[in-house]
Amino acid sequence: MRLIMLGTAGGPRPVAKRSAPAQAIVHRGEVHVVDCGNGVARQMALAGIPRRDLTGVYITHHHADHMLDLGALPLIAWTDGCENEIDVYGPPGTTGMVEDFLSMTRPEIEARTATTGRRSFPEMLRNTDVPDARVIRDANGLRVSTGLVDHPPFDVALGYRFDSDEGSVVFSGDTRFSPGLVELARGADVLVHEAIFPEALAAQVEGSKAETLIQHLTSCHTTAADAGRAAREAGVGTLVLSHLVPGSDVVSDEMWLEAAASSFDGRIIVARDLQEIELR
What we know:
The protein is of the alpha/beta class. It has helices spanning 40-47, 64-67, 72-79, 94-104, 106-116, 121-124, 179-184, 201-205, 213-220, 224-234, 253-261, and strands at 2-7, 22-27, 30-34, 54-58, 86-90, 125-129, 135-139, 142-149, 157-164, 167-171, 190-196, 238-245, 267-270, 275-277. The relative contact order is 0.15.
């Protein structure tokens, strides 16, 4: 089982050196993508991950930086020759978003189907709204579970856990410090956790014309120190900091590491786009 970080910045505003949030689990010829920020298909190309092997898409919540390419990624995989069913999971409302995307792209789908002889794209999609913590997939040696995390104003925001004989990986999605996430991550090899750096948030909101954005960021997200606390309480082996806010170089890797290490003495990685993380 491989873990590849496709996009490691947080928020919908693009930054120069990091792409929008997305991660890939590659296992036994299957590609599973957690969150679909803008440009995820291109990030997969840069990482050398074949889109035709796309098997599952997992959305943590419905902020734009996590779901803008929810429909685009499977569609592009289809144009690349993907013929297998693609499972799409996310909080309630995800199925409706996929249906809206299919309506928007109907002319493209019909034209490309007629000229290429490909199977029907809509029939490839198996959409599941996930309202709570549960096992959502257990096939081909890979078990996927969800947990509820705490990310207002959403009633349902999800974390995901992937378990196989080769290791276990947990994705926090967006959350403030969440006991539910700690429980989901219990004993995992790797915890990929979002992180904010409160002292540098002015760089994130500059020019945004959003007067309450800093208040939202500090009340609904997790500091690097609290991400370390979550890793410690869950007993994980490795903490990977991602969905970094701010995602610019105003905060150095050393600053992120120092903040997380104040509460966690295990292995800490400040993720970079296209980086592959060793599970053990």
